[in-house]
Every structure is written in structure tokens, then in C-alpha cells.
Amino acid sequence: MQTNEIMLQCDFPSLTRLSSGKVREMFDLGDRVLMVATDRISAFNVIMSQGITDKGQILTIMSALWLNLLSRRAGIIADHLITCDPDEYPAVCRPYAEALRDRSMLVWKAEPLLVECVVRGYLAGSGWKEYRETGAVCGIRLPPGLKESAELPEPIFTPATKAETGHDLNITFAEMVTIVGERLAVTMRGASLALYKAAQLYARRAGIIIADTKFEFGLRNGQLILIDEVLTPDSSRFWPADQYAPGKSQPSFDKQFLRDYLETLDWNKQPPASDLPQEVIEQTARKYREALRSLTGVLTE
Question: What are the residues whose beta carbons fall under 8 Å from the beta carbon of 284, sequence distance 6 or more?
């Protein structure tokens, strides 16, 4: 597997592009969508000029494993996945089968609900910053005296939405209700907490703490389903359990290594980003691969 131009740009001329995200490209196939994970990586909402080798495959394989476990085996909620096998894709996709292998999913088209469903089991990132300032996270009052990276008494649901700048904006549950309605908000909250708790149990067996993660949901024929990527290093904070020590930032299996490097630069966090040193690319790729290697065993039992 090699990072090359097609793995960054995903240009498939005979397919109709539906949308382009920081990492994924969506192609319209009628009532279905071809979702392709590139090797692109973003930090501080800016796409880096270079990709991370194997990243698209890692995100796709990990998402598929989690969906199989949490949706099909545990039955927590239905999801959008049809197949990850390019040999089963519509004929229009067949010329690109090898490029698509291991980095794409054929999924049902759904109406996305414009709230990111964040679940936090530990106090980190924007949650830690908000707690220091207010003693609460997204309107949820927490016990006083908690340290950075502390495990919370119970996982909390802290929804977010996109601001006009494209950054995540934390909102309260009441604000979420005004966006999607009370019935859907309650169901999405319950499903998110159930998904997180189940995933956390499996991950701990693999020596990984899932500090927080985000889920996205959509409606298909009026039914709420889980969509997009699930429990990957792009959407979650994965910490090695044997190195966990509250009171400081934790080592991680996600793109925190890249963020830490970028923080050392004289950069205003606006495009364009500087080229990444090869060492940073390789170390970030290594962390993604380690997460997949650790989790694969427990997710395929």
C-alpha cells in the first residue's frame, strides 16, 4: 500500500462526486453512496499538503470492524454500510476496483442530521479547557477538582455542530433539541452513550482507552441510522492504557502527535500548512497502524 496522488485526490472520472470532505470523498450512486477514505490528514481544520501512508485503509478497515461489532452483532443501532468489497459495487465502479479496495464503503444514502454526537469518558481537549473555565462541559456540571485527563464518574454526552468557520462548536443538549427535535435528540443521545460504553469495553481488552469519540447519524426512510466513520483515530482519542496517568496530556494513537508538532511551528493555523517532515509523517502513520493492530484481535473474535 502506497500513498500516491490518487489516494490524496480520489479522481474517478466516470463517477459523480457528491461531496468532498477533509478526508473523505463521496460519489453519488442513486440511492447509494460510494464513500472513499483518502490518505489526507487535517489538523486545526486545515488539510495538510501531504498524506499519511495507509491512513485511508486503516480508517476504512477499523470503521467496518466496529460497525460489524456494534450494529450487526450487538444490535445497538442500524447503520449505513452495505459492503466494503469492490467486487460487489455497481458496474460503474469496477474500473477503479483496485484503487478502491480496503479504502472504500458502499453505503445507503441518508439525510445527515447536523449535530455531531460527542461522548466523553475522560476530561481532555476542548472539554478540559471548558471545565477549567466554568466547571462544566456543554452545560453539564462536573465534580470540582478534576485533573486533566481524569476519568469522569460517568461518560457524558456533549453534542457539537459546525460553526461558519468549519470548526466544531460545542452546544448544550437543549440547543441540540432545537436543531433536530426532542425525539431524535433523546434517541441519538441514548445510542451514542450505548455505542461508546460497548466500544470502551472492547478497547480496554486491547489495552486502549477511548477517551472520547464522536458519532454521526442520519435518516433513511424515516429510520435513524449510524453513518460516516466510526471509532477511528480521526474521530476519537485513543490512549494506551498502560501509560495512562491523569494530571497531564496523554500519549495517543491518533493525530495528536501531528498536532503537537504543528504547535511548535510559527504558524497561524490558517491554510496553507507547511510541508511535514518525513519523520512526522512516518510517526503519525505508525500510531494509526498500532491502533488498528491492537484493536483488530478483539474486534474480529
Answer: 41, 52, 255, 257, 258
